[in-house]
Specification:
The complex is a heterodimer of chains A (about 290) and B (about 425). Chain A has helices at about 10-40, 55-60, 65-100, 105-110, 120-130, 135-140, 155-180, 185-195, 200-210, 210-225, 230-235, 250-260, 260-285; strands spanning about 40-45, 50. With about 290 residues, chain A is mostly helical. A two-stranded antiparallel ribbon of chain A has the order 1-2. The longest helix of chain A has about 35 residues, at about 65-100. The model of chain A has no long low-confidence stretch (mean pLDDT about 85). Chain B has about 425 residues and is of the alpha/beta class. Chain B has 20 helices and 9 strands. In chain B, helix 2 (about 35-55) links the parallel strand 1 and strand 2. The chains are: A mainly alpha (about 290), B alpha/beta (about 425). At the A-B interface, helix 12 of A face helix 3, helix 19 and helix 20 of B.
Chain lengths: ~290, ~425
């Protein structure tokens, strides 16, 4: 047990934490409280008539089967984006780690996609996969596959997952590569001398040692898929066809800024906020303890 | 103190000097619009010409993105008390704007209050009836109105041996079969599907889409478009989507490339695609009226408009509104409207602009360009063909789009899709009723 240390009261510590608290108040607590308040209102678009309705917006939300579908869709989407982005990044990082000549060039090229803005990435994939103009549907037509994500919901989902994951691969790659390079070479050489093949060396030595990096990336990727893929979805499918790519954060935007249902949209954002809080607690209380740091 | 003297005082003086300078200059009129590309340049030219024509007012047009973005940013600006004088709002936003009584300044009142002579009967009935109250007061100024037409590829028709442009849906099917036999991937496609295949389908066959004169007579309206005629139409389209007669290519104008690339020989969408098709198509094309079902009606009624109008927002200096009125009058003059119509494919909003285009020989030189206006004024609008005015319609259109997509892909039956669309639409209507 550590000895408790007593400081004499002084204004200094309060002064030092003040900027942080002020920023949190202005940029988080205030808007969050506004969202909470707005979520209990039914209002016309111009804000000319306002009614306070308590939890009616939430009741409507939770009794709407489409909202639950969006929930389920968001979890599937996030899992697939995180998994795809991390698996590819790890594969590329392992390969780039083994390259000796020209490794700088490979690394630079692999990091590039991260610099592309989501909307620009969306536009890029939009053209590649456009059923009439795109190169990929054209190539697919040679093997007899008729690609049309404007009508086929599964194809649309595959497309947004692919493009969202593609954008995140560069970021993951960077962390995985740094993680791999911090593994002492002597460990791997020792294993090689003992006769372990590349596969075994990877799974028994390198992958466990990467677990802090993997855990960190898992959190980052899930948050990314949940909240930052909005631009890609808007540019590629706008949530369609027939809602098949409408995830929660896109629904917030669509109902609030397109449909002008501010109360309903605010209620959805409150739900999203609750999810973030829950994820954060789970992350720090339970999962992080199971990760082995060196 | 020195900073105070060096920076703040001169800045304040400069600001004061600036404000007196502004007071002597023209009164600024802000106009937010959604016209990008070449149409945006045309909008700027209209404002420029107005500014040059007099020195009292200066109209400043600002492009605010697509229709939805323009409308929502104007609403957000209104809530922050920084609204423009004039905002362009698409026709689906009409009910939302109408309901905001404290926010909008009806155009007819703007004209009356500023003493500008204004005669509603100069305007085309099909256009103006959409934007009137049940009592007949004009709320917003028509600017760019369009209507869906049937675009067809003349070269493809020749190749497939189609001698006559389809006028009915059964002829559409025959023509599509011939086109596909001649090697085209699909017969037809369309965009803005709720507008073209539900809203206009109703008006064209004189079948209401909802109760209370399609919403014109009150907020307590309900959808009725799950009728037999619509079921039959959706069933046909769903079957044609399956067999390849019809290929779906996305919402709004997303399917335009299918027509331009000559995948589909026919395309149904707004007459305002005239400019785009003319500049991109490498084939002879024409436009014709929408097809109809012979067993539903002997002759079609009239189509309804889309596009946008200019709404005047309250909350500016009363003196500014005289300028707004002057500008709206200037903008709807025959010369400007004829010029705008001929370049864009939007319909001329006044009878005088239509007459002027005739005199100038535009329709003789460009056959078919008067299809839209003829189709809009084919018959006197009835309660079922005057237009639609439902609250929350921006969201409801999305609902209809979603259900239609589910039907085209075969995920839902036409009956189920229609029933869900009506059910979800009614829920949104009730929500709107409650909020207003």
């Amino acid at each position: 047990m550590l000895k408790r240390v007593h400081f004499s009261p002084s204004a200094l510590p309060f002064l030092l934490v003040f900027p942080q608290i002020a920023i949190t108040l202005v940029f988080f607590i205030w808007p969050a409280s506004q969202a909470l308040y707005q979520s209990m209102l039914v209002e016309d678009a111009f804000g000319l008539s306002t009614q306070f309705v308590w939890f009616q917006n939430f009741e409507e939300l939770f009794s709407d089967p489409l909202y639950w579908e969006a929930f389920e869709r968001t979890f599937i989407f996030s899992f697939l984006v995180a998994f795809t982005a991390m698996a590819f990044a790890l594969l590329l990082a392992v390969m780039a780690d083994r390259v000796i000549k020209g490794s700088g060039v490979y690394r630079t090229l692999l990091i590039w996609p991260y610099a592309v803005a989501p909307a620009a990435a969306g536009a890029l994939w939009f053209f590649m996969f456009n059923p009439s103009l795109g190169i990929l549907p054209y190539l697919l037509s040679f093997i007899g596959y008729d690609w049309n994500h404007k009508i086929n919901g599964n194809e649309a989902m595959a497309l947004v997952i692919l493009s969202a994951a593609w954008k995140q691969i560069a970021y993951n790659f960077l962390f995985f590569l740094a993680g791999l390079q911090s593994i002492p070479k002597s460990l791997i050489e020792a294993a090689a001398i003992d006769g372990a093949g590349p596969g075994r060396r990877f799974w028994t030595i390198m992958f466990p040692l990467l677990s802090p990096t993997t855990f960190f990336l898992l959190v980052v990727n899930v948050v990314y898929a949940f909240f930052e893929t909005f631009g890609i979805i808007d540019a590629l499918t706008a949530g369609g066809p027939a809602n098949s790519t409408q995830i929660l954060v896109y629904k917030v935007y669509n109902d609030g800024f397109v449909g002008l249902d501010l109360g309903g949209s605010a209620a959805q954002s409150v739900v999203l906020m609750a999810i973030v809080v829950a994820l954060t607690i789970v992350q720090f209380r339970f999962i992080e303890k199971k990760v082995s740091y060196q | 103190m020195s900073i105070w003297k060096k920076l703040v005082v001169p800045a304040t003086l400069a600001a004061l000097a600036g404000s007196t300078a502004i007071a002597n200059a023209a009164t600024e009129i802000h106009w937010w619009h959604a016209m990008g590309g070449t149409n945006g340049e045309r909008v700027n030219k209209i404002a420029d010409d107005f500014n040059k024509s007099q020195s009292e007012y200066k109209v400043i047009p600002t492009f605010k993105g697509n229709y939805t973005e323009t409308m929502t940013s104007a609403i957000a600006a209104f809530r922050a008390k920084k609204q423009p004088h004039i905002v362009q709002v698409f026709e689906v936003g009409t009910a939302t704007m109408m309901a905001a009584k404290g926010a909008i300044y009806p155009v007819e009142d703007v004209m009356k209050d500023s003493g500008i002579a204004f005669d509603k009967s100069d305007y085309l009935p099909a256009v103006i009836s959409y934007y009137q109250t049940p009592e007949g007061d004009l709320l917003s100024m028509p600017f760019n109105s369009s209507t869906p037409v049937l675009w067809y590829n003349k070269d493809a028709f020749k190749k497939a041996g189609i001698s006559e442009v389809p006028a009915t849906w059964s002829e559409m099917k025959d023509a599509s079969d011939k086109l596909r036999a001649a090697g085209y991937k699909c017969g037809f496609s369309f965009g803005w599907q709720s507008w073209v295949m539900v809203e206009n389908f109703g008006a064209w066959h004189n079948i209401p889409m909802g109760t209370k004169e399609n919403g014109f007579a009150g907020f307590d309206t309900e959808f009725t478009f799950n009728n037999d005629a619509m079921k039959k139409h959706w069933t046909n389209l769903a079957n044609w989507s399956k067999d390849g007669t019809f290929a779906y290519g996305g919402r709004r104008g997303d399917s335009l490339p299918m027509f331009i690339n000559q995948e589909c020989g026919m395309w149904m969408n707004s007459s305002a695609y005239y400019g785009s098709i003319k500049s991109q198509a490498k084939f002879e094309f024409g436009q014709s009226m929408l097809p109809y079902y012979k067993d539903l009606t002997d002759k079609p009624q009239n189509s309804i408009i889309g596009g946008a109008t200019l709404w005047v927002l309250k909350g500016q200096d009363q003196g500014d509104y005289k300028g707004v009125g002057e500008f709206l009058k200037f903008m709807s003059s025959p010369e400007i409207q004829a010029w705008w119509h001929q370049g864009t494919g939007y319909v001329p909003i006044t009878k005088a602009a239509y007459e002027l285009s005739k005199e100038q020989g535009f329709y003789n030189e460009n056959p078919g360009t008067d299809t839209a206006i003829k189709q809009l004024s084919l018959n006197t609008p009835t309660p079922a063909s005057r237009g639609i005015r439902f609250g929350n319609f921006v969201q409801i259109r999305d609902v209809i789009n979603e259900e239609m997509e589910a039907v085209w892909s075969g995920e839902k039956t036409p009956e189920a899709g229609l029933e869900t669309a009506v059910e979800r639409g009614n829920a949104l209507l009730r929500k709107f009723e409650k909020a207003n």
